Amino acid sequence: MRRGAPAARRDGENSSGVKAFRSVTSNAVVLDRPDVDTDQIIPKQFLKRIERTGFGEFLFFDWRKDPDFELNHQEGKILITGRNFGCGSSREHAPWALEDYGFQAIVAPSYGDIFRQNSLKIGLLPVTLPAEQVKELAERARGGEEITVDLESRTAGGYPFELDDHARECLLEGLDDVALTLREDEKISAYEAEHPALISTLTI
To answer: What is the CATH number of domain 23-194?
Structure first.
């Protein structure tokens, strides 16, 4: 993966841009820092874009000016990081930037609640594991071992993680809120046919 390059469309991406996720095996990037907030993930000056793509090159923009910053020396599709990742403001651009950079899964002890939900909505899998297991995976990654995150078995590096069945199904199938609603299209149409509008409408 070329640093800062927009990620290629993964198999399973539907027309709304939600990407189906089943598993990924890759080297992992270790960012051993707690409380990484969304302002650092994608600084505010890059939020003017109206598209969801193109944010990857600005990921951790300020931190990457430091030659010793972790992402300047590592590549991979999995990010292993510290507790409370994605705290701070609710900007959905943060998971957009991580996904556009090429990450498909994140492993951390905990997340900012809104960041976690925004990640799930675009097919970026936030795996939650106990801190000791995250530390062990980070050590394995630093040693050059590839890590597998498997949503079907709900395991990361061999460790089981929890994810509710609804979120898991949406990720496996690449479903967003609109796609979920369209699954019930026949029932919605039948309901509308049985319950005509009570208010008259005027066509001009």
So the answer is: 3.20.19.10
